[in-house]
């Protein structure tokens, strides 16, 4: 695993956008997209790169990590709508190639299996963007999720619903259930890139990067992955014990591998 520490959130977002730009340039045809606030700077910089540097998403398929059960794709907080608003509407990514679980499906379990099959058939995902919850979740794999899980119906913890209340004007509006890619589904991507910024993420980042691999911190599965990159700002890196070493690696990185 590589840990890249940037001075601030904006710089971290630009760094992840640069990694994605390079992956597409080198032929990645399938992207895994996260929502929430962590990747917003990434998407803003991808839009800038599309407009100013010729980055093209033509021919790329995108798969969302998760979706709220009960929200139609037209709902402003459905993840299908968020990704459309933040990215798809501003670049040449074909909306028909953006795949999300259908949160209104009458049988969410069956919809989760359908989504997993579609993803597996199109995969492997070349690059998967991830955020991390303050409790260590990735996608909506809350602590206790099976490390071997596939896309399925999950119940959100009250902590996660409280965190996301800011998007819904209060916790009452936050759905209780989601369809989320499982940890094994996520782990099948060729490259996992996690972005975390701000002091509230410092504990989860330290547990994911330097803690034991355990279902209690689902993001720790990155330690088992052959190609995982964690991009954090200084605030989110605050509790990393090996921080000086990560800085050292960046200082002495061969130019060809730089960001
Ligand atoms: C969103 C997702 C979640 C978020 C996580 C962090 O698609 O899968 O795991 O990445 O809850 O959310 P933010 O970035 O809003 O702090």
Show the helix and strand layout.
Blueprint (H helix, E strand, L loop, with lengths): L1 E5 L2 H17 L4 E4 L6 H14 L7 E4 L1 E3 L10 H8 L11 E2 L8 H15 L4 E4 L21 E4 L2 H6 L13 E4 L2 H5 L4 E5 L5 H9 L17 E6 L9 H9 L8
Parallel strand pairs: 1-10, 2-3, 2-6, 3-5, 6-9, 9-10
Antiparallel strand pairs: 4-8, 7-8
Helix pairs in contact: 1-2
The protein binds fructose -6-phosphate.
Fructose -6-phosphate (F6R) binds next to loops.
What would you note in describing this structure?
By secondary structure, the chain is of the alpha/beta class. It has one domain (2-190, 219-231): Rossmann fold (3-Layer(aba) Sandwich), CATH 3.40.50.1360. Helices cover 32% and strands 16% of the residues. Strands 1-10-9-6-2-3-5 form a 7-stranded parallel β-sheet, sandwiched between helices. Strands 4-8-7 form a 3-stranded antiparallel β-sheet, with helices on one face. Strand 2, helix 2 (40-53) and strand 3 form a beta-alpha-beta unit. Helix 1 (9-25) crosses helix 2. The mean pLDDT is 97. Bound molecules: fructose -6-phosphate (F6R). Fructose -6-phosphate (F6R) binds next to loops. The site of fructose -6-phosphate has 15 residues, from loops.
């Amino acid at each position: 695993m590589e840990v890249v520490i940037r001075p601030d959130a904006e710089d971290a977002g630009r760094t992840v956008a640069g990694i994605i730009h390079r992956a597409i340039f080198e032929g990645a045809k399938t992207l895994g997209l996260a929502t929430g606030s962590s990747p917003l700077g990434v998407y803003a910089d991808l839009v800038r790169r599309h407009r100013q540097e010729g980055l093209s998403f033509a021919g790329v398929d995108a798969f969302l990590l998760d979706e709220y059960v009960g929200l139609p794709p037209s709902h402003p907080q459905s993840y299908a709508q968020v990704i459309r608003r933040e990215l798809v509407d501003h670049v040449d990514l074909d909306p028909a190639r953006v795949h999300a679980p259908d949160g209104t499906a009458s049988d969410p379990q069956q919809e989760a299996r359908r989504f997993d099959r579609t993803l597996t058939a199109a995969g492997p995902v070349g690059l998967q963007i991830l955020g991390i919850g303050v409790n260590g979740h990735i996608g909506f794999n809350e602590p206790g999720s099976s490390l071997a899980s596939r896309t399925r119906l999950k119940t959100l913890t009250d902590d996660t619903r409280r965190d996301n209340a800011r998007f819904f004007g209060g916790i009452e509006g936050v759905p209780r259930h989601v369809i989320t890619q499982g940890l094994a589904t996520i782990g099948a991507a060729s490259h996992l890139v996690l972005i975390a910024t701000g002091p509230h993420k410092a504990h989860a980042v330290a547990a994911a990067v330097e803690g034991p691999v355990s279902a209690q911190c689902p993001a720790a599965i990155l330690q088992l992955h052959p190609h995982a990159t964690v991009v954090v700002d200084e605030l989110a890196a605050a509790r990393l014990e090996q921080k000086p070493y990560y800085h050292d690696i960046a200082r002495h990185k061969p130019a060809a591998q730089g960001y």
